[in-house]
Every structure is written in C-alpha cells, then in structure tokens.
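Researcher: Last one for today. Full complex below.
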Amino acid sequence: MNQDFDIKIIDKALSIDNAYDFVLDSTCGGITLFVGTVRNHNKGETVTHLDFESYRPMAIKELTKIAASCQTQFETKKIAIYHREGLVSIKEKAVIIAVSTIHRKQAFLACEFIIDQLKLNVPIWKKEYLMDGSHWVNARP
Amino acid sequence: MNQDFDIKIIDKALSIDNAYDFVLDSTCGGITLFVGTVRNHNKGETVTHLDFESYRPMAIKELTKIAASCQTQFETKKIAIYHREGLVSIKEKAVIIAVSTIHRKQAFLACEFIIDQLKLNVPIWKKEYLMDGSHWVNARP
Amino acid sequence: MRIKCFGIAKEIINQNTLSIEDDTILSVQDLRRYLENQYPRFSQYKSFMIAVNQTFALDTDQISSDDEIAIIPPVSGG
Amino acid sequence: MRIKCFGIAKEIINQNTLSIEDDTILSVQDLRRYLENQYPRFSQYKSFMIAVNQTFALDTDQISSDDEIAIIPPVSGG
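Model: Here's the assembly. Have a good evening.
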C-alpha cells in the first residue's frame, strides 16, 4: 500500500470531503478535484439512472498504476480516487479525483490525466438506463 | 446579477460543499474544483498564517468579468468563486473555484484560467506572517 | 479454465463465470478463437481485451487453468 | 480628492484613505507624480496601478473628485 494514495470503489455515496481531507497537506498550495456526475441526457436520449460494474481488484491495480505514474510525471503529493459501483441516480457523483501538489499547474495536469486514463483503461463498466431500455455504454457493435 | 455565477469574498471558513452544490447541474457531466490552501513554507521561510485584504467591490467586479469570459471562451455552465478575507491559518482554504461544463476538458481549462487570472488581476492582497515578521506578498521593492 | 465475465460479455455468455474444459486453449489468441466460435456475438466486438492475473494480456501470452482470466469489454467508467 | 489605499500602499501612506486638495491633479499620471513626490517609497514600486471607479485606469485617464479612486499595489490573492 502506498500511503500517498487513497483508491476506492464504493457502493455508497462518494464524499468530496473525504477526498479533500486525504490529499490536504501543509506543504501543498493547490488541490485540484474532478467530480464526474450523472447527466440526465446522453446523445439526445433521456437517462434515468446508471449501473456501474467493476472488476474491482484489477480496477484498483490499474488506478494505482495511474496514480504512481502521476507521482513520477507531475510530482504529485497525494491522490484520492473514488469510483462508484452499483446503481447511481442523476446528479449523483460517479467518480471523484483529488490531487495535491506543491505548484498548481501540476495538480491540473495530473487530475486531467487520471480521469482521461480512467475512462480509457480501467475495468469499470456503465450500464445506461433510458426511458425505453438499457445498454452497456461503449459496447454497441 | 448573473445567476450562473456565485462570487463571494468571505471572512469565515470557505465551504467546498456550497461551491459544489451551486455549480451542480443535471445537464453537466463534469465539475472541476481548485482549492488554494495556505502553505506552511514559502521560499524557504516558515509561514505562521496569512492576512488577506481586498478592495471588495472591485474584486467582485473583476472576478465577474473573468467568469463571464469563461462562459464565452469555454462554454461553462456555472461558476463559483469564493475568496477568503482576514486572518487565515495554515492548511485553511484561501480560495475555492468550482466550474461545471457539459464536457470535462472545458472545466479544467476554465478552472485554471480563473485561478491564473485571479492571481494576476484581482485586487486582493496577502500579508504573510513569518516567525520573525510580516510582509505584503509581491510588494517587495 | 474459469473465465470471469463483465458488462456486455456477461450478457453474451449469460453468466458471471464461464468454465471451459479444452486442452487446446494455450494462449490468449486460442481463447479468443474459442469465444468467437462458441458465442458468435463476440465477433461483433473486436475491441474486447483479455486480462490474465488482473493485467491486460497480449494475444501471444500463454494461459493455463491456474491463471485468473477475465474478458474485458470496452470500458466505460467515470 | 479621496484615494483608497490597500496593502503596502496603506502602510506607505499610513492610512486607509488619503485626502488630497490639489487642483493640478487632472489625470492618473498627475496623481502618480503627486504620490511619488509626497511618498518617495512609491518610486520603488513601479508596478502599482490606479483604479478609477473600480476599473484599472490608464495614465492618460482624466480624474476628478467625483471619481472613486484607489491605489492598487501588486496583487497577491489566491
């Protein structure tokens, strides 16, 4: 366990305060957070809710690799990554990423890098429920 | 008053929840926050606390211009900017910026633009208290 | 050999874990061929990955029944 | 003419608001010259700005006692 990282996949509401408190560090001048929320529309269709599934141990491993890469590339101090699992309603938080760094530019770069990598490579899947059915996102033939 | 902006200079603890709740919007998929905290060191010297002073009406005007420019440049949905005034301790929040957008890239760009502009052009001054005295930051001859 | 299934893969196979008894499956590529033969819908999803021991695997990687193997459809977290 | 003072300017002038009775101050540039003569420490801080009616002013802008005028030392918020 790397004590600079707090990486969790959780089936309850995500807390920005917990993420902020974890990364807060008296040597750091800047904390950047990204919060991904559930939108009520996607590609013109009304979304009623989402259901997230993860391959949890592998997802945690992949997120840890991404965080470690931020320590090297962006000299981050502390990183929290929380992702939701199970049913999530509109406006709820699906993901929280928090990063502290000595200088703020690096915090923005690291935070954006993490969410970009998460969306590309971390084994988590989203099932979107519409008014007239449901489908796994990105999995249309 | 533009109802897409919540811009405040406050002499009490700043709340991330308030900023987040203001910008949260069911059409938005991404919220980016920047939190500037008080560091215990600056340029090798131990900082004990800070004292912020502002030209409050002009600072609010300038921050509103910056927020309006984000709506044009980055198509932001909602923006909250809270800045602390008066005495602030180490690890306390000096500034919170929260931005919601439809697509996340724009939220990162807007959030960074706001903090960069705030530090350059908004009439707020920081007095740094060290172990052996105090000085206005950026105001050494 | 037991294969964990997620997302659309779970729906195609209609179960969380697929058990395969087939001595000719020695590599990730062999497993892909097996899946595409048994479950033709997989042919439509060219971009699904195979993870071996919780790491993305290459088609040439060897696999055995001791490995933890999973089908990883296109991810959509965040 | 009343001038609001902030940060280091407040310390140089030793008060929050400076009152000036001088009919020859007609522009921002005139005000700058006055301040540098009366308070030589201002000469060391070339980058202080003048705000007129809560907007950053140019040296050539005209000013009168009806305007809200402020000395804006280098800012350091955030």
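Chains D and A do not touch (no CB pair under 8 Å). Chain D has a mean pLDDT of 95.
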